[in-house]
Each structure stands twice: as C-alpha cells, then as structure tokens.
Amino acid sequence: MASANKRLALPSNNNEGILARVSSTISQSPIVHKGQQAASDVAYVAKRLLKSTGKAAWIAGTTFLILVVPLIIEMDREQQLTEHEMQNASLLGTPSLPAK
C-alpha cells in the first residue's frame, strides 16, 4: 500500500498544478508564437484590404453619381419629350416623323 501512495503522488517542485505547468509550456512554445504572429499578420492585411476597398467603393459611388445619374436623367427627359411630341402629332392628325 505504501508504494501505491508514493506512485500516486505527483512531484511538484513549484506550487503549480499540472494544468498550469502544461498551459505555461504550451503558451511558451515557438509554434504558438508563430501562430499568433500569423494571426496578427492576417488581421493587419484584412484591415488594410477593407480600408482600401472602402476607398475604392467611395470613388466608384461618387463617380457614378456625378457622371452617370445626370446622363440617365437626360435620356429619360428626351424620351418623354419624344413620346409627348408623338402623342400630340397623333391627336392633331399630322403624320409623325419617321424614326431615324
């Protein structure tokens, strides 16, 4: 029985438990350090990518508003004017102009 008690007792030179020792050993591992560095690098690249994507979206959106929206509005006005002229021509009985 005495040998069984000795076998179950874990040697402890510090006042740390086995989980604390394993945890500290793992956290000081070079593999864990490299993994943390890789995760940090990925986060940095993702942040920069999102920032540049936001800038590109802002440039594209403002360019669309300044250049394309007025063109669409003008084309719509032209089509409404043409339809209005064709409607007036058909009401007055004058032949409509052929489409070019």
From TrEMBL:
Signal peptide: none annotated. It is found in: Mitochondrion outer membrane. The chain crosses the membrane at residues 56-73. Its main location: mitochondrion. It is a single-pass membrane protein. GO terms for biological process: intracellular protein transport. GO terms for cellular component: mitochondrial outer membrane. Keywords: Membrane, Mitochondrion, Mitochondrion outer membrane, Protein transport, Receptor, Translocation, Transmembrane, Transmembrane helix, Transport. Belongs to the Tom22 family. This is Uncharacterized protein. The lineage of its organism: Eukaryota, Viridiplantae, Streptophyta, Embryophyta, Tracheophyta.
